[in-house]
Amino acid sequence: MKNGWRNSTFKVNFYSWLFLLPSLIFLTIFTFYPILKTIYQSFFQSMQGEHDSVFIGLDNYKYLMEDEVFWEVIKNNIWYALGTVPTSIILAMMMACFVNAKIRAKSWIRTFFFYPTVIPTIAIANIWLFIYTPGYGLINHILSWFGIGSVNFLGQSETVMAAMIVMIVWKQAGYFMIFYLAGLQNIPTNLYEVAKIEGTSAWNTFKTITFPLLMPTTLFVFIISLTNAFKLVDHIIVMTQGGPNNASNLLLYYIYQVAFRFWDKGLASALTVIMLMIMVIIAVIQFFSLDRKIHYS
C-alpha cells in the first residue's frame, strides 16, 4: 500500500512539475537570470567601448547615495506616485459606480471612459503635447477666454509634474474602471435591496456595502497603478525628456539615460537593483499589511 501511495504521489508531482516546466524555463531565462545578471553587473564599472569590466564593489551605490540627480528623481517618482495612484483609483471607482447604475446610453458611456486605454502611450503623449503647447494649445486657448496669458506647462518646473500626472490619470482611470465594474457586478443585489428597504442613504450604502466589498479589487488596482508609476516612461521621452532641469525625470527614465546615453552599464545596473528593491518593499507592505485587512467573502 505504501509503495502504491508513493508511486501515485510521485506521478502527481512529476506531471505537475512537467506542466510547470515551460513557465519555469521562461521565468529563468527572462526574469531570474536578468535579475541575477543585473545584481552582478552593479558591482562593476563597465563603460561602453571598454572590453573588461572593473570590479568596484559598492562604489556605484555609494556614488548614487551622493548623487543629487538620483535623489531628485526619487523625489519626483514619489510625487508622481502620490499624484497618479489615489487619483486614478478614486476616479475609476466613481466612473464604475456611475456606469453600473441604470442610465441611458450605458454602453456608449463605458466606451467613452475606456477609450483612452486603447490608445498607445506614445500617441497620447503627442496629443497632450499639443494640448499643453504654449500659445496655441487647447488649454492655453481656453485660458485666453478668461484673459489669462500663455502658460508653458511642460517648460516650467512648477507645472510639468502636475501636467504629467493629469495625462496619466486620464489614460489609466478607464482601465481601472473595468476592474471596479467587474467587482460591482459580483456584489449580491439583495444587499442593496435590504439597504433600500431600511431607507439607507446612497452614501451610507456605498460606505457600508459597496466600498468594503470592493477592497480586494482596490488592492489589485493599487498594485497595478503603483507599478505603473515606476514603469511608465514613454510619455516622458516624447514630451519632456526629463526636463526642465530634471523636474519630470523618473527612476526608469534615469536608468535609460545612464545606460543608453552615458553608456554606464554598471551604474545603470545599480539603479535597476534599487528600483527592484523599492518594488519588493512595496509588495511586502501591500501583501503583509493591507491584504490582512481585506475581507474576500
TrEMBL record:
Membrane topology, from the record: Multi-pass membrane protein
Domain annotation ABC transmembrane type-1: ranges: 74-286
Membrane spanning residue stretches: 12-36, 78-100, 112-132, 138-155, 162-182, 213-233, 269-290
Recorded superkingdom: Bacteria
Family to which the UniProt record says this protein belongs: Belongs to the binding-protein-dependent transport system permease family.
The species this protein was found in: Orenia metallireducens
Keywords associated with the record: Cell membrane, Membrane, Transmembrane, Transmembrane helix, Transport
Protein name: Carbohydrate ABC transporter membrane protein 1, CUT1 family
GO CC terms: plasma membrane
SUPFAM superfamilies: MalF N-terminal region-like, MetI-like
GO biological process per UniProt: transmembrane transport
Subcellular location: Cell membrane
